[in-house]
Predict the structure.
Amino acid sequence: MNLLKIATFNINGIRARLHILLEWLEREAPDVVCLQELKATDLAFPIGDIRDAGYGAIWQGQSSWNGVAILAKGMDPLEIRRGLPGNEQDSHSRYLEAAVHGVIVGCLYLPNGNPQPGPKFDYKLAWFEKLIEHAAGLYDSGHPVVLAGDYNVIPTDEDIYNTRSWLKDALLQPESRECFQRLLAQGWTDALRARYPDERIYTFWDYFRKHWQTNSGLRIDHLLLNAKLAPRLKNAGVDRWPRDLPHASDHAPTWIELAIDE
DNA sequence: ATGACTTCCTTAGGAAGA
């Protein structure tokens, strides 16, 4: 059976971690990659190295912070939109959407929202509302759709090693979780949770307190599938090995494999 | 606990991440 592998990876600075991205692309050969936190301007995006690795790309950069990209093996993604509808005044580069290998791919970097309460948390929730609104149309578009990215939401207490030191954190506030649940209630399948209903799955381990070494992680990078795509889900997982490399991102690549119609 | 660790932007230290 032919499989299409789609991954999301918060790279946390594409220039500082280009060697990790290239090593991972070569070893895992994903067909589609959603990147977040480029932390680079459009001009600084390393498109030459990415083309040399066999990938086409579209990207939405920004100096210092944020920034998203979609990579596709052997083709250029066909861009559908950049930024969410109704968010034209938003100066942050956080959303790209493209048609790639027969699937509509939304690549998102949802605002972190800390500290909360405060304006950053308000911005997170407002951004989330725009996403929920746009996702409803995508869900019913009649096309296979995946919404992949760093959602900056820990959906449940099963998605964190221990809530004790995170209780005030924006990632698990009831408002953040309620937004995520309302998005899921449109019908989306949380692919990693569907594949592993009862296991602890983490996609992020912060740099503090030896959290990687003690597997004290969070599950905040998600791939949501609409009803057209969910029946094709064959496998899902997290590539932990890039998190263990020197100068690693604090996130690990998170992926799904979909059956392809021949 | 205004912490810890890391990058960016720029070369000393603040902002931001989660």
The longest helix of chain A spans residues 119-139. Residues 2-260 of chain A form a domain with the Deoxyribonuclease I; Chain A fold (CATH 3.60.10.10). The first strand of chain A starts at residue 3 and ends at 10.
